[in-house]
Design goal:
- By secondary structure, the chain is of the alpha/beta class.
- The chain is about 35% helix and about 20% strand.
- The chain has a 7-stranded parallel β-sheet.
- α1 packs across α2.
Length: about 150
């Protein structure tokens, strides 16, 4: 199963969109705290509507807790980043990969970059900063699902 990890998400509406997408696509979600909003079930339900009953969500209290879990499980970490070297369409996804999306406001710190097994990018036009995180996640997950079947 593919996984989508959200690193300290800032915007509940984006998180809700990604949770709904994950429910529809059968992708597990890892939420790495602290978030920029209350990630209680009540608040997630407001943004994820009735889709939350159809997605496996695991909350990790910190990056360190997530990393301990990931390494113990032997899960490959694929970081989506504007400074990635490999276009997401050229990356060879594998079943079990965990695709990590950074914070809307700041991406991820250098320590997270260093921990990633690979860094991918969604190429965009020169002069543009970035895509909405939920849009980028949808594009990347679509390609990953296409590759792994």
């Amino acid at each position: 199963m593919l996984r989508l990890a959200l690193y300290q998400p800032d915007i509940p509406q984006n998180t809700g969109t990604m949770l709904r997408m994950a429910a529809c696509l059968g992708v597990a979600v890892e939420i790495i705290e602290p978030a920029g909003f209350d990630v209680s079930d009540r608040n997630l339900r407001r943004s994820g509507l009735d889709y939350l009953d159809h997605v496996a969500i695991t909350r990790h209290r910190s990056w360190a807790a997530f990393e301990d879990w990931r390494r113990e499980a032997g899960i490959r970490l694929v970081l989506a980043t504007t400074s990635g070297a490999v276009p997401y369409t050229a990356h060879g996804f594998r079943d079990g990969d965990c695709i990590l999306m950074g914070r809307e406001s700041a991406g991820v710190p250098e320590a997270v970059h260093a921990a990633a097994d690979t860094r991918i990018v969604v190429p965009i036009r020169e002069g543009m900063r970035s895509l909405n995180v939920a849009v980028a996640a949808a594009m990347i997950l679509g390609e990953a699902i296409r590759q792994v079947g």
